[in-house]
Amino acid sequence: MNNSNLFYEALNALTNNGCPLDLARSAASIVANDDPFQPDLGRTPQQQQIIQEALPYLQSGIYDQFQTIDETPNPLTHGQFLGNFGGELPDETIWRLAEGDSTALNDITSYATLDRASSIFTRLEELGAWD
Fold first, then answer.
1. Which of 5, 18, 79, 83 is the most buried (most CB within 10 A)?
2. In sequence order, which ranges of the chain are alpha helices (DSSP H)?
3. pLDDT digits (tens, 9 = 90+) for 58-103
4. Are the C-beta atoms of residues 48 and 57 closer than 8 Å to each other?
């Protein structure tokens, strides 16, 4: 697993929103092993189907317009922020962060959550995710 923190956060977000445990484990494992340098984040068609089945458990509001995370403007950043903060932060804040809006960090009131979000934001910025 490339990112165990992302695995546990995605698993938590999915199960907190009613996703069956086996599906949540599978989806979290896929997201934790995403490769931003590969087409479709390196996901097989079977993995994409699992993500498509799990995604409705994370959708509310702004993400409802997408069938999969791959349809968002930036799947890598949306996947990272939604996987880490889905169910913890409002979707609008997650969306703004995933679109590279650093001012969205100001909306986070929990110090621990802000620290994690800032760290992820900085790493994605260093990777050139929004270039």
1. 83
2. 4-16, 21-32, 45-54, 75-85, 91-98, 111-127
3. 766 778 778 888 899 999 999 999 999 988 988 889 999 999 999 9
4. no
